[in-house]
């Protein structure tokens, strides 16, 4: 076995544990707004470079430069303690970028899927994605100004065929407390789905 | 070659050229498992910076405190795929160490979730 130099060990001791939560949903549903409302830093953005060879990306018609395009990814950070940091990732809702969620979702606590009640179907792909992969998620209903009808959670459940166990929470992504509450609901939901605790 | 999707690129060189210049056109198997939330920290003795490009240097300067792969990509202003290769170079040199997310392959366990829950409640 190779011994690790002590300064490497020292550096490693500085690295906190990290956890991820995804903020998903269709175009313009309030993902970045929610990340911003709870993040300790203004949301950062980065991008992933896609080539035509990337999985399933064959419909980049119209993108100049032919070989590549980029997908923007917003994220925020919540330092829970010097030993634990949480990241919130929001990414575009276009169907053609869903494969990106596979990497993002790996090892994540779960996802918050936001819904704009004026365009319910915009978030259907996200719900379907997490349901299929059995990734814990909760649904947040953003009541945008101009929405004619204030949906009750059970109406949304029926309209989008959301499974009975999935929490559906009215929220306002602009409000820190509402975003905090939905994070709490998600973590509690993820805990409720853990296998029953072994007695050890 | 307009539009914000491509504004990151070297205008004269066009797409692909700049990431290739920075990474030497390499893709690295070691880079693929770096998660967006993986923590990166500079090793204190990392000193000989000969042969390192400005992006490598920027990573070493930023990581005196731990930062995630995603934060580094954002601060250094390169795509994720590029930052992963650069970090992987520095790992090979022993200049940085990384800590993958708590549960790199499966969902986090009960104790960790409880710690996160307590933390979020206390925000
Ligand atoms: N009334 C209301 N408006 C909201 C809410 N959340 C977001 N908005 C507004 O909706 C607009 C779009 O919000 P964004 O956070 O940019 O949405 P997004 O999902 O990140 O959008 P894309 O990244 O483009 O898909 C902004 O003008 C927000 O201020 C909400 O809960 N209620
Ligand atoms: Mg956004």
Automatic annotation (TrEMBL), chain A:
Alphabetized GO MF terms: GTP binding; hydrolase activity
Keyword check for Cell division: no
Keywords (A to Z) from UniProt: GTP-binding, Hydrolase, Nucleotide-binding, Receptor
InterPro entries (UniProt xref): Gliding_Motility_GTPase, Gpn, P-loop_NTPase
Residue ranges that the Swiss-Prot or TrEMBL entry lists as coiled coil: none
Pfam families, sorted: ATP_bind_1
Signal sequence annotation: none
Protein family (similarity comment): Belongs to the GPN-loop GTPase family.
Protein name (record): Signal recognition particle receptor subunit beta
Native species: Kutzneria buriramensis
UniProtKB/TrEMBL annotation, chain B:
InterPro entries hit by this protein: DUF742
PANTHER family (UniProt xref): DUF742 DOMAIN-CONTAINING PROTEIN (PTHR36221:SF1)
Descriptive protein name: Uncharacterized protein DUF742
Biological source species: Kutzneria buriramensis
Taxon lineage: Bacteria, Bacillati, Actinomycetota, Actinomycetes, Pseudonocardiales
């Amino acid at each position: 076995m190779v011994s690790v130099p002590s300064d490497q060990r020292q550096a490693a001791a500085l690295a906190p544990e990290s956890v991820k939560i995804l903020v998903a949903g269709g175009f313009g549903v309030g993902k970045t707004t929610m990340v911003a409302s709870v993040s300790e830093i203004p949301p950062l953005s980065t991008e992933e470079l896609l080539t035509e060879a990337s999985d399933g990306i064959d419909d980049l018609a119209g993108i100049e430069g032919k070989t590549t395009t980029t997908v923007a990814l917003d994220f925020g950070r919540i330092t829970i303690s010097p030993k634990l940091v949480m990241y919130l990732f929001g990414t575009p809702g276009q169907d053609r970028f869903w494969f990106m969620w596979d990497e993002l979702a790996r090892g994540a606590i779960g996802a918050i899927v936001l819904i704009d009640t004026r365009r319910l179907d915009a978030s259907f792909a996200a719900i379907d994605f997490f349901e299929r992969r059995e990734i814990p998620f909760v649904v947040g209903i953003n009541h945008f100004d101009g929405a004619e009808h204030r949906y009750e959670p059970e109406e949304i459940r029926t309209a989008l065929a959301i499974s009975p166990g999935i929490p559906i929470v009215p929220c306002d992504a602009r409000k820190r407390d509402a975003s905090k509450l939905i994070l709490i609901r998600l973590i509690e939901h993820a805990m409720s789905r853990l296998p029953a605790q072994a007695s050890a | 070659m307009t539009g914000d999707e491509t504004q990151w690129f070297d205008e004269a060189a066009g797409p692909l050229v700049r990431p290739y210049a920075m990474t030497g056109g390499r893709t690295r198997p070691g880079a693929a498992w770096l998660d967006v939330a993986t923590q990166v920290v500079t090793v204190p003795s990392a000193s000989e910076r000969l042969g390192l490009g400005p992006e490598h240097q920027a990573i070493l300067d930023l990581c005196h405190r731990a930062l995630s792969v995603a934060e580094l990509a954002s601060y250094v202003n390169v795509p994720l795929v590029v930052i992963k290769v650069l970090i992987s170079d520095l790992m090979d040199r022993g200049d940085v160490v990384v800590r993958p997310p708590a549960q790199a392959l499966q969902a986090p366990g009960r104790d960790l979730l409880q710690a996160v829950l307590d933390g979020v409640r206390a925000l």
